[in-house]
Amino acid sequence: MIEHSEIRAILPQGHPMVLVDRVVSLEPGASIVGIKAISGSEPCYCEVTPGSEADRFAYPTSLLVESFGQTAAVLWLKSLKSFNRDPKHLLMFVAARNVKIEGCAFPGDVDRKSVV
Fold first, then answer.
1. Is this model's pTM higher than 0.85 or not?
2. What's the Cα-to-Cα distance from 6 to each of 10, 11, 21, 22, 99, rounded to whole Å?
3. Is the peptide bond before 50 cis (omega within 30 degrees of 0)?
4. Which one of 18, 38, 55, 78 has the fewest beta carbons within 10 angstroms of its own beta carbon?
């Protein structure tokens, strides 16, 4: 298991853009399972007015995909024998294949993503 404090140390994104709360399973070079707890107090909800319809609180798909990419980045970084953060190198999530997002996520949900 990898806790949030270590994830924040691994990923270059700062708060509030770290979208992985915990890694519950990791097999370096092979697979990872990460989770993201969705909270109603996240920045993406700041423009949603009280009393809005429930569907207005659907977590943005773009952030679900970003969270997936960050989880994959943790797998990649933890799979390297050693890594030094060279300011000239930047890890980027540029493509996704065979991604399937089923339904919507809302505040109170826990999004679980598996990368194999």
1. yes
2. 6, 9, 10, 9, 26
3. no
4. 55
